[in-house]
Structure formats: C-alpha cells, structure tokens
Specification:
Shape: rod-shaped
Radius of gyration: 57 Å
Number of strands: 13
Order of helices and strands: HHEEEHEEHHHHEHHHEHEEHEEHHEE
Distance between the termini: 49 Å
Strand content: 5-15%
Number of helices: 14
Length: 573
C-alpha cells in the first residue's frame, strides 16, 4: 500500500486493534474468575430463592399471607423479590416506594404443580397426615429402629409419613421379624380418603377418553412394588392412562396450593453492584503492556512522520527556489499522495518555465512587430522633415498603412488582454451564419488565389462582429499562406446539433509536431516566412478565445506541403 492515507489508516487500525485486544485480554484474565464466581453465586441464589418460594406455594393455598415469609427470603439472600399474577397484578413485592420498575420479562414461574414438567413432592394436599396419625406412625418408626438395632435409616416424607431411605424393593428381610414394620406402611384414614378421591378423578378421566379408557380400571394407590404415597405413574399403563393420572393428581392438589405466580428478581433498591477490584499484579501488568504499546506506537509514528516530512522539506526548498526566480527547480517523485504532489509541483514548475519563455518571446515579438512600422513611419517623417521626401499621396498612403498595422496589433493585444482578464464581452443575437460567411469571403477576395464559399442556410444566436473577426482571422491566415494559383474554400454546414465552419486551403501546410502550438500567441513555425508574409502571430490565439466564448471549439488538421483545414464548431441552441 503506497497511499499515505491508506498507510495511516491501516496503521491506526493496527494500533487500535492491538490496544483493544490487549486490553480485552487483560480485562478478561483479571475479571473472568470474579465474573464466573459472581454468576455462579447469582444462579445458585436464584435457584435457592425459587425453591423456597415453590415450597411456600406447595404448602399454602394462596399468597395472601406470604409477605412476611417472602420478606425473610429477600433479606436472607439480599435480593428484591416480586410476585405477580397472570394479569400483572402484584401479589408480593419486597421493594420500597422508590423501587425501580420491574423488568418486562419474569425470571421464572412459581407453580408447584409444574416444576420442570413435574409436581413438586412437597405439594401433598389431602395426603397430609393429621396429628394423631403422625404420632402413631412415628411411634411405629421408633419401635422399628429398636427392633433392627438401627441397621436401617428412616426419613420423613413431605406428608409426614416415616419411610425407609436405605432399603429398596425386595430387601425387607432385615425387618421381617419386626411385625411393627408392616404397621408402619399401613395406609391411614387420611391417605385412604385421598386415594379414594384420586381414584374417582382417575376413573372419570378414563371414562371421558372413550371405550379404551373404560376398559382400563387399575386403581391408583400403593402396591407391592410401590411404597411411596406419591402416585407419578401407572405401572404398565399406556400413555392415555398415564396422562389421566397426571391430570387427576394436579386437579386434586390444585385447591391446596397457591396459584401460579410470575417471579421477578432484582437488586435491592439503592445498592450498587459490587465493583471488581483488580489485583496489584494485574494493574502492574496492564501498566507495563500499555507502556509497551505506547512505545511501539511512538516509534512507528516517528518513522512514518519522518518519511512524510522528508519529501515535504524537499518541496519546501524547491518552492523557495521557484519563488526566487529559479525555473529549473524540480523534486524527486514517489508513490502515493506525496509522489502526486511532487509530480504536480514539477508540472507547475515546467509550466512556469514555459510561460516565462513565452513571455520573453512575446515581448521580443511585440517589440519586433512594433519596430518595423514605427521605423518606417519615423524614417519617412524624418525624411520629409529634412526635405528629402515630398509628402505626396503615395507617401501618406504608405504611412497610413503602417499606422493601421500598428492599430491592428494594438487591437489584437487588447482583445487578448480582455480574454485573459475575463472581460471579453459578447452581444449575441439571432443571425444567419451564411451571411457572415459571405461578408468575410467578400472582404478577403484576392486576385492571386481562388477564394470561394460553400454554404447552407444556418441560423444561430451569436455576436456577429466577434464571429466575423474569428472567421476573418482564419480566412486571412489561409490566404496569407496559400501561394498564387491556390484555392481557399470556406464551408458552412450542420452536423447533429452543431453549426460547423471549415476553412480549407492548398497552402504550405503545418508539420505534425507544430500542430499543438498553432493557437499559441506569437507562435510561428517559420519565423522568416512569418516576416515575409506579415501578421502579428495573434490571430489564431484570438480566434480560439472568441470561439470558446461562444461555447464552441476550434481545431486544425494539416498535411505538410498539401494544405490545412481549420474547423469551428458552434452550438446552435
């Protein structure tokens, strides 16, 4: 990439990318552990809060008296807890009056009958033992422990019933001699009533499913392979029966649990998140790496700036030499914007040198053009004053011709000065261009050459005086350089939306290497021929300015020794 802009852009991108990458790496290294721990703690806290709220919902019929319990949970875990129903009505909110608005999306749905698709085991409903049943079963449990010398472990089910925790089905031989063990697993009155209710709901559901459901009447309840009070599946049953059992259990438990509630968890009001404190080692590492990046960036910037300043200094020195008049000042080129600037400076310097050469040539040419008529006028006037010549009509006519030549030269210089200053004024009007051609041809008639016009009617809007001047310069130039017996033809025709004037001669022609310069002021391919044929060398330059002022173009084609064709193209609109 040689473009200075591209180099600086890419360099900035590299520095920015390195800075971002290093900063991100250091930050991630310093904070990943803290963030992971914080996230883990937050997830664990959320799970614990959710579990305690599900436990409350599973053991209470509604959320009416939950405020004190939820406040305790919120204070325990340092979180703001809000519960709303399905319509967005707030059930419980531990935040104060100035608490921020709750998030749009709830954290979870607290529903003890649908915890990851299952019924929470703490939702016991009508299966909960009464006090007398509780005391009786726990007395059996104590006797069983004594009988087995504590070789078994008992735990308490959510409904209050003691149950084995370290024996599986078929491993009851360890307490076969303890008759009290079987009494421990005898259904209580409460449980029988609950199972009866569940059986009725289950049968009703099966009946609603048609003939297949009525043919399946396996009653729910404990069996030889199931000593748990929870009924979660129907052994060996098809999916329809399993679905009926699940629906029946939820229908039975619904009146005994709190309604589903949307859970929102936020930070307590007024507390800011704990800031992550970087260790001293991490801060030192960041400082050292930042200093290293700064040093690299400084070195790269110095190198780049040096490469940029060197050619600029060379350009500055060359500019000073040019301002002091040295037209040969040049600077070495290069690539990118600086190289383009150097080439532009060299082109400007060459243009200035060429302009200076043209100025010197113009001064010399003007002096030469003025010297001849002025010398003639001065010489003849002195001769007349000294009595060496008589002021006869022939002398007066000759002096008048010389003065007219001076007047034409002065007028041409004035026109060029106006064109250069942008003050050349045109007075356009609708004209018949073929009339202009006829006027110019008639004014330039010459007995030694054939001058004729080939025109078609063309009407444009233009300044007739300036247009005659431009066309007259071309015709006069063609007549001047056409030898006796030659021919000059002026053509006028339309081409597309342009009016075209062509002046063709059978003169000496112009060499191909001289064609680019024919419209330069005071330029002549043959100085001696120009002196012989006359002319100031300004006519073609004036013609170019006049044509361009009309919005047109002028061009030339020529073959050396055969003649030339000058073409003026003007817009018709």
């Amino acid at each position: 990439m040689k473009s200075l802009l591209v180099r600086f852009f890419l360099f900035s991108l590299v520095i920015a990318a390195c800075s971002i990458a290093v900063t991100a790496w250091l930050a991630s290294q310093a904070t990943t552990g803290a963030i992971r721990q914080e996230q883990g703690d937050a997830l664990e806290t959320d799970a614990q809060i959710f579990d305690e709220l599900v436990r409350y919902a599973a053991t209470h019929k509604d959320w009416a008296g939950a405020k004190s319990d939820v406040d305790g949970i919120a204070q325990k875990y340092g979180r703001r807890i809000a519960l709303t129903d399905g319509n967005g009505t707030t059930l419980v909110d531990t935040g104060g009056k100035n608490s921020p608005q709750l998030p749009i999306t709830p954290k979870a749905l607290v529903d003890p009958l649908n915890v990851n698709g299952k019924i929470d085991p703490r939702a016991v409903g009508p299966f909960k033992l009464d006090d007398e049943e509780y005391r009786t079963l726990h007395a059996y449990a104590d006797q069983l422990l004594q009988c087995t010398n504590n070789r078994i472990t008992l735990m308490e089910a959510p409904n209050g019933r003691p149950r084995l925790s370290n024996l599986g089905p078929g491993e009851l031989s360890t307490w076969d001699d303890c008759l009290v063990g079987y009494s421990l697993y005898t259904l209580t009155v409460t449980e029988k009533a609950a199972y009866g209710q569940l059986q009725a709901l289950f049968s009703k559901c099966l009946d609603q499913r048609g003939p297949y459901g009525r043919n399946y009447d396996k009653p729910p309840g404990p069996g030889p392979d199931n000593f748990d009070w929870e009924i979660t599946t129907v052994n060996g049953a098809p999916p329809e029966a399993v679905a009926c059992m699940d629906t029946s259990r939820r229908e039975q438990l619904r009146p005994y649990v709190a309604a589903p509630a949307q859970l929102f968890l936020t930070s307590p009001t007024g507390e800011e998140p704990m800031a992550i404190d970087l260790s001293t080692t991490g801060a030192t590492r960041i400082t050292l790496v930042a200093l290293g990046i700064l040093a690299i960036a400084g070195f790269a910037s110095w190198v780049t700036a040096t490469q940029l300043v060197r050619p600029i200094r060379a350009l500055t020195a060359a500019t000073k030499r040019t301002a002091e008049g040295d037209r040969t000042a040049r600077v070495a080129g290069g690539a990118g914007e600086i190289g383009e600037l150097a080439r532009s400076f060299n082109s400007m310097s060459e243009k200035l040198a060429e302009t200076e050469r043209q100025r010197q040539a113009m001064v010399s040419d003007v002096a030469h053009e003025l010297r001849t008529p002025l010398g003639n006028i001065t010489g003849w006037l002195e001769a007349t004053q000294d009595g060496l010549a008589e002021p006869d009509p022939h002398l007066i006519a000759m002096l008048l011709e010389e003065s007219l030549l001076l007047q034409r030269l002065v007028d041409d210089l004035h026109d060029l000065a106006q064109a250069d200053a942008g003050t050349l004024r045109l007075h356009p009007e609708p004209i018949a261009l073929d009339d202009v051609v006829d006027q110019v041809v008639n004014a330039q008639q010459n007995r030694e050459i054939l001058l004729r016009a080939e025109t078609t009617p063309v009407h444009i809007s233009a300044d007739p005086v300036r247009l005659r001047q431009a066309l007259g310069n071309l015709v006069a130039n063609a007549v001047r350089y056409t030898p006796p017996g030659g021919e000059v033809v002026v053509k006028l025709f339309q081409w597309q939306d342009r009016a075209v004037l062509e002046v063709t001669d059978t003169g000496t022609g112009i060499a191909s290497e001289d064609l680019p310069h024919v419209f330069d002021r005071f330029w002549r391919a043959d100085k001696s021929r120009s002196r012989r044929t006359g002319g100031s060398g300004l006519g073609l330059a004036i013609t170019r300015h006049l044509v361009e002022a009309h919005g047109g173009t002028v061009s030339v084609t020529s073959t050396l020794g055969e003649g030339s064709t000058f073409r003026i193209s003007l817009p018709r609109a």
